[in-house]
Amino acid sequence: MTLRVKDMVAAAETEIVTLRAEEAKARHGAADVRFIDLRDRRELEREGRIPGAFHCPRGMLEFWIDPESPYHKPIFAEDVQFVFYCASGWRSALSAKTAQDMGLDKVSHLGGGFSAWRDSGLPVEQVTAK
Asked: What CA–CA distances, in Å, run from 41 to 47, 49, 62, 130?
């Protein structure tokens, strides 16, 4: 194996904006910012989420961003800043890079992910099982 995930994440982070938890908190709730939770449903139900975050499973991101995809979600056509996050920041770094590559121009990710947000004492919203 010549390419490792940690190398992919490190490369992505040289091309994207990484926000610390307090920087993300300063943007949270703004009308022109959307937090995108990339974790799977079990993680949401077990740990909660950043209040108001939109859930997009990582495996669907490209399909939901692409306006020509039958799975496109209108949220990704909004002219807003997207703040992607996952559990620890790896999936969100790769996702932010992918979103940029697909044409979203106001993209960042939460360094350290949901764990950094929660460990900073920032608000968490519980998610009920479907």
From this structure: 10, 10, 18, 9
The count of domains in the chain is 1
| CATH label of the domain that carries residue 84 | 3.40.250.10
Instruction: Return d(Cα 97, Cα 5) in angstroms, integer.
Output: 14
Mapping DSSP to helix (H, G, I), strand (E, B) and coil, where does residue 55 land?
strand
Domain holding 31, by residue range, is 18-119
* Cβ contacts of 87 within 8 Å, gap of 6 or more: 39, 43, 113, 114, 115
Q: What is the pLDDT of residues 34-58, one digit of tens each?
A: 999 999 999 999 999 999 999 999 9
Helix (H, G, I), strand (E, B) or coil at 34: strand
Would you say residue 129 lies in a domain?
no
